[in-house]
Specification:
69 residues; mainly alpha; 3 helices; 64% helix; Tet_transcr_reg_TetR-rel_C_sf; WHG domain-containing protein
């Protein structure tokens, strides 16, 4: 979980700066971001991208949608 703690800290800083809502705990937001990123990378590496959608081009938009709604 070495990479998880800095992500939780980044979420805390983001919440303090108004980048995240306060509806969920920082640990839940960080876990969601990590899970989404892991899933997208897994799709690309396994060759299971949906037809016609370049997942690698969607990382930022997917994570932004997760964070901001």
């Amino acid at each position: 979980m070495e990479a998880y703690r800095p992500l939780v800290d980044a979420v805390r800083w983001g919440r303090r700066d108004g980048q995240f809502g306060s509806a969920s705990e920082p640990e839940v937001i960080a876990l969601s971001v990590r899970g989404t990123a892991h899933g997208l990378v897994s799709l690309v590496l396994s060759g299971n991208e949906p037809p016609g959608l370049a997942v690698a081009d969607c990382y930022e938009r997917a994570l932004r949608a997760l964070v901001t709604g």
